[in-house]
Q: What sequence folds into this?
């Protein structure tokens, strides 16, 4: 049985700021479950930035779930399209291992708020499914509840990153840039964030290993 979940989160930052900060979400104090991040594809086509990243995250499960799998981490594929002209960033993520046990597919659309100028709305949708005979309902329900809790952590962590990068949003002039320039700046931010994440990945992994 597929479980569906959606929510909307408003960030009090301009879309350009959110798009730049997206590539620097990790590491942050609220998302230490993210172990590594590697960019496997990135290119600008028709003014849009297309990216594909591979992330590794911790994968703790309750005792009853260890009978199905007990891997300490799980690989996640994240694909995204960033369109500075339309001010829209769309991301798609999915796990690529243990999909028969539990698959989680997520879509997030970041766009400028129509109700609150200068803010950005993130519309998140998720589909959680399990194909384990006799346990699919229980596993899907567990996955849904864990996803809801993680959404809160993700939003808190992203807000922390935004406030760190843009302590004074009123002085940011990214909205005045030409769309092509925006795309280049976002690409540069993505490349810088990727290098930073790789430098931090080993430290995070070591900390996680010590705790476990």
A:
């Amino acid at each position: 049985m597929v479980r569906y979940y959606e929510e909307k989160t408003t960030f009090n930052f301009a879309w350009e700021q959110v798009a730049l900060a997206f590539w620097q979400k990790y590491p942050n104090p609220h998302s230490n479950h993210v172990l590594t991040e590697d960019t496997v594809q990135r290119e600008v086509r028709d003014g849009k930035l297309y990216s594909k990243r591979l992330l590794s995250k911790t994968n703790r499960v309750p005792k009853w779930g260890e009978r199905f799998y007990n891997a300490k981490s799980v690989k996640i594929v994240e694909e995204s399209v960033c369109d500075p002209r339309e001010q829209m960033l769309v991301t798609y993520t999915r796990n690529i291992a243990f999909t028969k046990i539990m698959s989680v597919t997520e879509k997030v659309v970041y766009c400028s708020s129509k109700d609150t100028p200068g803010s950005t709305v993130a519309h998140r949708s998720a589909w959680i499914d399990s194909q384990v005979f006799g346990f699919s309902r229980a596993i899907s329900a567990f996955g849904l509840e864990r996803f809801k809790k993680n959404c809160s952590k993700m939003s808190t962590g992203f807000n922390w990153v935004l406030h760190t990068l843009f302590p004074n949003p009123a002085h940011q002039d990214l909205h005045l840039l030409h769309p092509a320039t925006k795309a280049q700046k976002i690409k540069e931010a993505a490349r810088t964030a990727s290098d930073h994440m790789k430098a931090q990945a080993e430290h995070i992994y070591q900390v996680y290993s010590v705790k476990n």
